[in-house]
Amino acid sequence: MIHPVQRFNLSALALVCALVSGSVLAVSTVGCNALTWNGTHHGIRYSIHRDLRNHSIVKGKDGSLMYDSPELVVLSENGKLMINGVESGEVSEGDLVKITDLGTVLVNGQRRGDKLTGHAELQKRLKQGQAVIETHTQAELDYINDHG
Question: What range does the record give for the signal peptide (predicted)?
Answer without folding.
Answer: 1-26
